[in-house]
């Protein structure tokens, strides 16, 4: 402090050569910002206060990849433009690489053609919308799976769908009981093969007028649903006016190979109409999620009752004939 005496605390000061940027991934992003940009180059490892500068806007950066690259989030800008991207090791001096980063309007997707495809993937999908920019890094995301996209023009890109398993997508299965042949590969009837005496006029009959005891059950053979975490299902369930049997079970998921093993549905979702006990029960992951007493008039209504089940982060919701059923106490 007096130009003669100095401290001897041993605090170090380091020197570094001016960094050089060799590339950016990606090289463009929307004007809204928040694009994670990976900066590749040389001379990054000796810094102390890392920054990225997009034109005149500065954001903090982090050293990654064992010192071989930096990452930063692009800042928001007012309009589409191309700016120079530079980095700083100490928050003051910046590189002079002049690598361009292009801001563009956010992409908008309006339609897909086709909008469905095989579970094995490999469907060529035409994506139409607006603000599509030519880029070698363009991607389509199917669920959690990424595939390369081909830019056609500002309103169209094309990509090939990923397999269902890679996308970790939810499967949708629609059963139309127009005839027994429509069940092939989707559902199986225990105690007999699908036949026109059980499937007719758009409905599935588990018993006939001559069979008042429970001798048949239906299991939805949907391996694509096995292991799914959440379910959303809609059923139109007809509970007849007779006195036979203990009711009806409707199950979704990975079920055991047993004639009447629906209650051992594992991680599957199982809805049980217990007509004799006048109860409706919902089981999920081998756990009773709901038990609600139903009036005999509802269980033996003699007509179809719409049933909607939803199981997600908020829990289980069951709606029967337009009325929400309460969960069991405790």
TrEMBL record:
Domain of life: Eukaryota
Protein name: IPT/TIG domain-containing protein
IPT/TIG domain sequence ranges: 18-104, 108-192
A Pfam family recorded for this sequence: TIG
Organism field: Haptolina ericina
Sorted UniProt keywords: Signal
Sequence intervals crossing the membrane: none
